[in-house]
From TrEMBL:
This is High-affinity branched-chain amino acid transport ATP-binding protein LivF. Belongs to the ABC transporter superfamily. InterPro entries: AAA+_ATPase (IPR003593), ABC_transporter-like_ATP-bd (IPR003439), ABC_transptr_urea_ATP-bd_UrtE (IPR017780), BCAA_Transport_ATP-bd_LivF (IPR052156), P-loop_NTPase (IPR027417). Residues 2-229 form the ABC transporter domain. The gene is livF_2. GO terms for molecular function: ATP binding. Keywords: Amino-acid transport, ATP-binding, Nucleotide-binding, Transport.
Length: 229
């Protein structure tokens, strides 16, 4: 589904990603771990075409994406939830969700997102900025899902939200995985969440992949040493 090879990314003249190789197979949930500032979010932005990537390859669903603009990558079937959620605070919950349909030309699955996140259906007329952090995260994920993407990319979905909402997000990820219609790539630091929802993991340090493996074989003590601040 997603095959990234020898990828380099820059901010100005500073190299952030150095020959990164990462693969996500169709139907998998893959997590990218690492300390703050090692390049994880930049990697996701690279996939979406939001930073300069002069070298390497990003193949998605059989097509090379490295030179395509961001909107084409979204239309190809990649749903992206950035760190900080990035919802529209002055728009209602319903308006935020309707904007998610723009990617698919107005065709999507809003009703299904209400089933996944029932709390949103009770808040349709509420402004996005009036929601709690956890509710905003649910809205951001729902907005990415309404266009029925082939792949969902989540940047730190558990950051700064309460345990009950983390459980809700984990439940949704496991449900989507069981349905088999979507592939998921997550940047995360909450190890317990990773082991609960993921199939495979990568660890990044200083812009390189330094460790990878199946989650069932994950050595928590070893990983914790590599991701601890």
């Amino acid at each position: 589904m997603l095959n990234v090879t020898e990828l380099e990314a820059y901010y100005g003249e500073s190299i952030i990603l150095n020959q990164v190789n990462l693969q996500v197979d169709k139907g998998q949930v893959v997590c990218l771990l690492g300390r703050n500032g090692v390049g994880k979010s930049t990697f996701l932005k690279s996939i979406m075409g939001l930073v300069a990537t002069p070298k390497g390859s990003i193949r998605f669903d059989g097509s090379e994406m490295i030179s395509r603009p961001s909107y084409q990558r979204a239309r190809q079937g990649i749903g992206y939830v950035p760190q900080g959620r990035d919802i529209f605070p002055q728009l209602t919950v319903e308006e935020n969700l309707l904007l998610g349909l723009e990617v698919s030309g107005g065709k999507g699955a809003i009703e299904q997102t209400y089933e996944l996140f029932p709390v949103l259906k009770t808040m349709l007329k509420r402004k996005g900025g009036a929601l709690s952090g956890g509710q905003q995260q649910q809205l951001a994920i729902a907005r990415a899902l309404v266009s029925k993407p082939k792949m969902l990319i989540l940047d730190e979905p558990t950051e700064g939200i309460q345990p009950s909402v983390i459980q809700d997000i984990g439940r949704v990820i496991k449900y989507l995985k069981s349905e088999g219609d979507i592939t998921i790539l997550i940047v995360e630091q909450y190890l317990e969440f990773v082991t609960d929802v993921s199939d495979y993991y990568y660890v990044m340090d200083k812009g390189r992949i330094v460790l990878e493996g199946r989650v069932e074989d994950l050595n928590q003590e070893e990983i914790q040493k590599k991701i601890a601040i």
